[in-house]
Structure prediction request, 218 residues.
Amino acid sequence: MKIKNKLRVFIAGQKKFGEDVLALCLAHPRVEVMGVSCPLDDKYIGRLAAINELPIIPAGTLNGDNFPEGVDLGIAAHSFDYVVKKTRYKAKYGWIGYHPSLLPLHRGRSAIEWAIRMRESVTGGTIYWLNAGIDRGDIAYQGHVFIKPKYWLNPKEGARELWFWELEPLGVQLMRQALDDISNGVIKKVPQDRELSTFEPSTDVKDIYRPDLLMIEK
Prediction:
């Protein structure tokens, strides 16, 4: 399958990763950006979208009714909004997102921190196809990074550093690979291995009693 025209994408995201993915799409010769969804006060992807006069849908309000027509691919780039079925299906090829773990390992928001807390030496990032589950869609691309022991001393700070120096750049690299392939009609989908799947709760949610959070208390 060969895509003759430009790949039309819509990006839902925020912060620096959202900005980097939007910049990647704007610079890609075979990609056209149809719009973005982000917080209205976002100083990264929101600012870049405004500079390029792209339509902006406020984060939390994106749905199948206001999603643009004619989009080929949706991209979740550090977006915490759930993309509902109607919105996913309006994009011709569906939606892809980036998760900072080697899925199906460490599903959930605190994937990096849990990998560090569990004293793992290798983690990575995954471009996957969004579906109805949380981080459960088919895998498209993966890459790995090493976790240095220095990150174990302070898992929360270590998670921020590992994201900034390793996993965020890896995500941009994998997203570029995805855009290159999909714009050439190459669609990769590999189901996740359920026998290997793990899910951990957010380490930032401690206002209710959760026995599975006791292990992270200091």
Notes: The longest helix spans residues 155-182.
